[in-house]
Amino acid sequence: MADDVNDAIDQGANAAKSAAETMRNAGEQARTGFNERVVDPAKRAGEAIKASGQKVAEGGATIGTKMIDQAEQNAREAFAAMREAASAKDISDVMRIQGDYLREQGQRSMSQAREIGELIMQFGRDAVAPLRSSGEK
């Protein structure tokens, strides 16, 4: 009888151990599933947002520098035209210089605006690319 009791106790202990191991495995599977479905995508999204922010900052700095370069070029061209007009022989020469400057500045402005627009579009695409690629994983 004592052996039967001891066997029953051992079987109960083994069943408890088995149940505890099953619960541990189920908990681990749930944790792994949660990480795969929630935590990992959130980490990837956070990394993509950070990369996107860096691209935006880089793009803003590049566009700002480009605009300063263009302003310097425009100022140089304006002063060159003023120097040329100052050395003109007569009013018709001044009018020609002024007309040439205005025509060239108009073309330059269009070209500069196009260049800035293209930079903005490229930086927009670059900034969105990390966000798009994180959604594909």
What do you see in this structure?
With 137 residues, this protein is mainly alpha-helical. It has one domain (2-135). Helices cover 95% and strands 0% of the residues. It has helices at residues 2-86, 91-135. It is rod-shaped and about 130 Å long. The chain starts with a helix and ends with a helix.
Q: Helicity range of the residues?
A: over 70%
β-strand percent reads: under 5%
Mean pLDDT: 85
Would you identify the regions where 5 or more consecutive residues have pLDDT less than 50? none
Number of helices: 2
**Would you tell me the structural class of the helices and strands?**
mainly alpha
For the largest beta-sheet, the strand count, sense and barrel status come to:
none
Radius of gyration: 36 Å
* Overall domain count: 1
Order of helices and strands: HH
Query: What form results from the Cα inertia axes?
Result: rod-shaped
Distance between the termini: 63 Å
Report the strand count.
Answer: 0
Summarize the model shown.
By secondary structure, the protein is an all-alpha fold. It has one domain. It is built from two helices and no strands.
Q: What labels describe this entry?
A:
mainly alpha
Topology:
Elements: H1 2-86, H2 91-135
